[in-house]
Amino acid sequence: MVCHSQEACTLYCPDVNTPAATTPNITSNGVIWYKEGESTPKANYFLSVEEKDHGVYTCTRSYLYCGQIYNMTFTVVLDIQPKGKTVVEAVLDCIEQSRMVLLVPSSPDTGPGSGLLSAIHAALVERQTCLVFIKTEKTEVLRSGSFPEALQILSEAGACVTWKGMRSMPPSSPFWKELRYHLPAPQHASKIRLLPQTSQDVPSWSNV
Question: Which superkingdom, per the lineage (predicted)?
Answer without folding.
Answer: Eukaryota
